[in-house]
């Protein structure tokens, strides 16, 4: 008998998850992430990685 | 675990950026193949030295023209070899971001991603070259400011206005530095009656080519094959002749820059007058080109610090922040 309650609970959880849809601010969150990833501070890392690699290469005989 | 890669698959050169390591490969996009057996004999710089100098059974080709794949099978083999050289094996399949011209068609786009996947990539995403160039040139594209980038590559020239992390206006033409070389070849053939190879034409462009009159101009001796006698002959070319030869090609590039400026919204257009336009790509290194664009558009032109590497550095940034920037990939928006 208990399996009926388990199945009903699972269906309820899945239905709630599906009906809830996307959070209203999900677009804002992902857009902010996108813009932050393009900031100068975040881009500095790529240049530093490359400069470090290039200087290591130059040091090699 | 494979390290993810960013590839600038250019008509002239291919650059590879490895996540966490920086640029690990920078070579001409050339492959030499044995016509009889189909075996690859050389790639990159070694194959480039073979162009126009091979015996009949070897063919040294650039598998991309105008930013698009002209020979799918050869391109796939070239990408496979490139991936092998940076340590990708059949057990380590990386995610790959490839920079492509914005003007390529859906079919051409699919050809690039298919070639990369078949060559060993777990996933292949595409990013427009001007966008990657703007990121790599360190422009403040995250701000509500008009950033204009002009990318003059081997086969294409693209201008884009970028603001708030997206492309606002875009203009692309399938004209690039190789067309400048071809114009020099055609001029020498027509006016001096000698045939020269594409490598010689490129050397002439680098030695005395310019977009407008510059200081310290000198002449160049050009050696080729006389079309009448078939014998080797030397002629002297002046910078004025080269300027005349390449004028039409440069005009079509500058016209596309003007069209892009005209497409920009007025709010962003005013920013260009203060901030200027940024020139990237090997074609941008032509002497006097920035001055000529500046003169014809009345907008200041600035050269990027790393004109040849800007595109792959931008794509490298995308691979470092893959999840945050995956909305920028071409498939994600269409």
Can you describe what's shown?
- The complex is a heterodimer of chains A (61) and B (334).
- Chain A has 61 residues and is mostly helical.
- Helices cover 84% and strands 0% of the residues of chain A.
- Chain A has helices at 2-20, 26-37, 40-59.
- The longest helix of chain A is centred in the last third of the chain and has 20 residues, at 40-59.
- Chain A is elongated and about 75 Å long.
- Chain A starts with a helix and ends with a helix.
- By secondary structure, chain B is of the alpha+beta class.
- Chain B is built from 12 helices and 18 strands.
- Chain B has helices at 44-48, 72-85, 106-118, 129-136, 177-192, 198-208, 239-263, 266-275, 289-297, 310-320, 322-325, 330-333, and strands at 5-9, 13-18, 22-28, 31-34, 40-43, 58-61, 64-65, 68-69, 95-100, 123-128, 147-152, 157-163, 166-173, 194-195, 220-226, 232-237, 277-280, 301-303.
- Chain B is flat, with a radius of gyration of 20 Å.
Salient structural properties:
heterodimer; A: about 60 residues; mainly alpha; about 85% helix; about 0% strand; elongated; B: about 325 residues; alpha+beta; five-stranded mixed β-sheet
> Hey, roughly how much beta strand do the residues of chain B contain?
25-35%
* Average pLDDT over all residues of chain B: 91
So what's the oligomer here? heterodimer
Rg calc of chain A:
25 Å
Q: Which structural category fits the helices and strands of chain A? A: mainly alpha
Q: Report the major sheet of chain A.
A: none
Write the SSE topology:
The complex is a heterodimer of chains A (61) and B (334).
Chain A lengths: L1 H19 L5 H12 L2 H20 L2
Chain B lengths: L4 E5 L3 E6 L3 E7 L2 E4 L5 E4 H5 L9 E4 L2 E2 L2 E2 L2 H14 L9 E6 L5 H13 L4 E6 H8 L10 E6 L4 E7 L2 E8 L3 H16 L1 E2 L2 H11 L11 E7 L5 E6 L1 H25 L2 H10 L1 E4 L8 H9 L3 E3 L6 H11 L1 H4 L4 H4 L1
Helix pairs in contact in B: 2-3, 4-10, 5-6, 5-7
């Amino acid at each position: 008998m208990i399996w009926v309650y388990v199945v009903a609970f699972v269906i309820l959880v899945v239905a709630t998850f599906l009906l809830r849809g996307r959070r209203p601010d999900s677009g804002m969150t992902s857009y902010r992430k996108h813009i932050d990833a393009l900031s100068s501070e975040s881009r500095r890392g790529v240049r530093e990685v490359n400069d470090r690699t290039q200087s290591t290469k130059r040091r090699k005989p | 675990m494979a390290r993810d890669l960013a590839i600038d698959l250019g008509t002239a050169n291919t650059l590879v950026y490895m996540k966490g390591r920086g640029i690990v490969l920078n070579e001409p996009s050339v492959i030499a193949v044995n016509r009889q057996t189909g075996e690859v004999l050389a790639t990159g710089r070694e194959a480039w030295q073979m162009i126009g100098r091979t015996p009949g059974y070897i063919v040294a080709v650039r598998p991309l023209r105008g930013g698009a794949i002209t020979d799918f099978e050869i391109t796939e083999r070239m990408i496979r070899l490139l991936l092998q050289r940076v340590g990708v094996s059949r057990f380590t399949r990386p995610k790959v971001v490839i920079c492509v011209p914005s003007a390529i068609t859906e079919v051409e786009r699919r050809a690039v991603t298919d070639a990369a996947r078949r060559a060993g990539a777990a996933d292949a995403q595409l990013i427009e070259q001007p966008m990657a160039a703007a990121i790599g040139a360190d422009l403040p594209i995250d701000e509500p400011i008009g950033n204009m980038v002009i990318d003059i590559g081997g086969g294409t020239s693209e201008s884009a206005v970028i603001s708030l992390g997206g492309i606002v206006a875009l203009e692309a033409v399938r004209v690039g530095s190789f067309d400048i070389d071809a114009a020099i070849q055609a001029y020498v053939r027509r006016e001096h009656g000698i045939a020269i190879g594409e490598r010689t034409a490129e050397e002439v462009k680098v030695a005395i080519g310019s977009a407008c009159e510059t200081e310290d101009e000198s002449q160049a001796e050009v050696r080729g094959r006389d079309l009448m006698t078939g014998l080797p002959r030397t002629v002297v070319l002046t910078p004025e002749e080269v300027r005349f030869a390449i004028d039409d090609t440069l005009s079509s590039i500058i016209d596309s820059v003007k069209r892009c400026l005209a497409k920009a919204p007025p709010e962003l257009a005013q920013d260009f007058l203060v901030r200027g336009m940024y020139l990237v790509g090997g074609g941008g290194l032509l002497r006097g080109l920035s001055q000529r664009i500046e003169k014809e558009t009345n907008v200041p032109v600035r050269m990027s610090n790393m004109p040849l590497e800007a595109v792959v550095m931008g794509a490298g940034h995308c691979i470092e922040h893959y999840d945050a920037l995956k909305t920028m990939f071409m498939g994600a928006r269409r």
